[in-house]
Specification:
Blueprint: H1 2-79
């Protein structure tokens, strides 16, 4: 009976070691996934920011053209 208890205890210790090892591997994998998410987020944000800057530039140009056009029309109306 004592031998069986010792064997069960050894198996329990081995299993505990394996579970701890698996926990360490899962933590390491979580860290890798977090780094990948951050890297991927940076890769997605960079083109998004570039497109947003281009859009804002185009909007500013259109507003400038519209203001100039209104100014020209107003000058033509008041002139003559």
């Amino acid at each position: 009976m004592v031998a069986l208890d010792q064997k069960v205890e050894r198996l329990r210790d081995q299993l505990s070691g394996r579970v701890d090892s698996l926990g360490t591997r899962v933590d390491h994998l979580d860290q890798k996934v977090d780094r990948f998410r951050e890297e991927l987020s940076g890769r997605i944000d960079a083109p998004h920011q570039k497109v947003w800057r281009q859009f804002a530039w185009i909007v500013r140009i259109r507003i400038t053209v519209l203001v100039n056009l209104v100014g020209v029309l107003a000058a033509a109306l008041f002139r003559g």
